[in-house]
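Take a look at the protein record below and tell me what you see:
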Amino acid sequence: MLYKELVDYSLYLITDRKALGGKELLVSIEAAIQGGVTLVQLREKDITGYDYYNLAIRVKELVGKYNIPLIINDRVDIALAVNADGVHLGPEDLPVPIARKLMGPDKIIGASANCVEEALAYQKQGADYLGIGALFPTITKGNTEHVNLEQLKIIKEAVCIPVVGIGGVNVKNASAVRAAGVDGIAAASAILGSENVSKAANSLR
C-alpha cells in the first residue's frame, strides 16, 4: 500500500507522446525512472477512454515494478478503473472535493494553480499537492498563465502541502526553480524529448 505522505515529488515525469520523436512511450518511461524519476503522471489528451484505460494498465504495471506512484491526468474514471495512485486535476476537471469523495482518503489528488488564492483554495478542498506554473514557455501546454519564480516562492510559503514547479523546466533552469523552495520539479519534453532519456532524467535529478 502506498502511503501518500511518503511520496517523493522531487522529479515528476509528465508524459507527452508528442515529445518522444518516435521513441516508444513505455520504454521511455522506464528509462526515465532508471534515470531518477520519482513520480509519473500519464497525460493523454487525444485518445479514447478505451485506449487511455488500456495504456494506463500497461503503465501502472511498469511503474509498479519500481514502486513509483502513477498519477492520471484529468480522468478520475481512468484513475479508478486502473487503481492508480492518484489523479491530477485542472480548473476544467472535476472539483477536488468530488474527486476525493469518489477516490477516497488514501489516493493522491493534485491540482494545478497559478496564484496564492487558487493554491489556498485547493489546499482547503483537500488537495495533496499543487502543480504551480507555467514557469517558463512550454510547448506541452498552450494558453497557460505564466507564474514567475518569485510568485512560485510566495505560493510555496503560503501553503503547507507539497508544491511542484511545472512548465518549461529543464536542466538549465531547474536549480533556480528548486531555489524557490519547492518540493519537486515536473518535466515532460526536457526528459522525453532527449535522445538519452535516462541521462536527461539523471541530469535533472
